[in-house]
Amino acid sequence: MNRRHFLATTSGLLASLVTSRTHAAPTKPNVVLVLIDDLGYKDLGCYGGDLFETPHIDQLATEGMRFTQAYANCPVCSPSRAALMTGKNPARTGFTGHITAIGRHRHPEKSRIIPPQDKMYLPHAEESIAELLKPQGYVSASIGKWHLGEKGHWPEDQGFDENIGGWTHGSPPTYYYPYKKPQKKWNPNIPTLAEGKPGEYLTDRLTDEALGFIERQQENPFFLYLTLYAVHTPLEAPGNLAEKYRKKFAGKETGIHPAYAAMVENMDRNIGRVLEKLKTLGLEENTLVIFTSDNGGLEDSAVQKPLREGKGTLYEGGIRVPLIAKWPGHIPANQTTDQLSMGTDLFPTIAAATGTTPQDPTKIDGYDLTPTLTEGKAIARKPQVWYYPHYHSKSMRPGAAIRKGRYKLIETYDPVDLALYDLEADLSETTNLAEKMPDKAKELLADLHTYLDKVLEVRHTPNPAWDGQA
């Protein structure tokens, strides 16, 4: 063989190998789970938020399935995230409160109840999505907010191969490089985020890290948990984007903070970057993308109407969230469903999509949504329950709730109250039907107590210092 023939043959073989590596897809689907912080149900164009600009997420909805009755597991972040990561209701895991807030304002001195003393961390014994997928050869990264415990209970302690930006606290000290505010004694920096560069914005930086992870792992099945701090406070928008919305909202009673709207747009742009990266690398067809929020939005920032109230409450504004899923070839495009769903459903859904079985399926509260996603089938499910016996700084109304079909019951512990709503006729929860429909209220209350009695690990107790006031 002469030298020219040898080089030509070798070059052809190398080109063949490179082409094979570039186009060979893992047999198991990649999973990209995007969790936004405090994003309200109405804060996207595809959910009717016509004052927000979210073209990339709207496009995601047209390419997949959009859920109109999706719920977070809790009206605040920590319990909701723990439930999403494990498929278990917060009442079952004993993780029902916002961990880094409980120590600072657990309850008023003379409140009627004392909230349960939660673990305030995700126990190592709980199987996370990363641990679920690891035996199948998945490489996992948690990029962004974690908020599920002190050091020793961070993502790397729960099966993730990479942790970038996740730690104890849930709100960043600032969205601007170097992400430090020494005057914030309880939350001065993000210790798991390496130094960046001047002018850098946190949401952009975390997305850069996500793109890098996808690049590095494109030959392997991967699980990317992209959990942006946005659009949680502090309300800090990049560049002059907030000014764009000040001008856009000028003279209008929108109820939307310009900086918040700007943060939503920036978040949308970055989700677009992730989707484009998957497409560019030829990974789009073999990737399940799920987009959702950890709880309802802040009333101070955005309008929740027609939903009542917002984050920290058991009304629809505090727990109803957007949920969109895309998986080409499996989930038909441009679908909308009114299938009831919870954040706990994502664990068994990802398990089913990847051909994986949880360690103990009998303890999973969530439902596999793949029949709805792939075939449009309705899923019969038991009533959905929320247990939030905490005094959130906004509502100060600890309680529990249950949804069964079209009806939703809220039991408030302080003050003691019972409210029944017909969500099909009264989405805004304006008319309490408890007195008009006592049998239905009694039925739902019994179902609520039966479930809580069965799964509660820790519960609230009477406060001996209660002053007897209603």
Unreliable stretches covering 5 or more consecutive residues: 1-25
Quaternary state reads single chain
What is the general shape?
A: globular
Query: How much strand content do the residues show?
Result: 15-25%
What is the residue-mean pLDDT, rounded to a whole number? 92
CATH superfamily: Alkaline Phosphatase, subunit A
CATH overall fold name: Alkaline Phosphatase, subunit A
Strand runs, count: 15
- Quickly count the domains: 1
CATH architecture: 3-Layer(aba) Sandwich
Radius of gyration: 23 Å
Q: What's the level 1 CATH class?
A: Alpha Beta
Order of helices and strands: HEHEHHHEHEEHEHHEHEEEHHEEEEHE
Q: How many distinct helices?
A: 13
Terminal Cα span: 96 Å
Topology:
Layout lengths: L2 H21 L6 E7 L18 H8 L2 E7 L5 H10 L3 H4 L5 H4 L10 E2 L14 H5 L5 E6 L17 E3 L37 H15 L5 E6 L13 H9 L8 H23 L6 E7 L22 H4 E7 L8 E3 L3 E2 L3 H8 L16 H6 L8 E5 L10 E6 L2 E7 L2 E7 L15 H18 L5 E2 L8
Parallel strand pairs: 1-6, 1-7, 2-9, 2-10, 4-5, 4-6
Antiparallel strand pairs: 2-8, 3-15, 7-8, 11-12, 12-13, 13-14
Helix pairs in contact: 7-9, 8-9
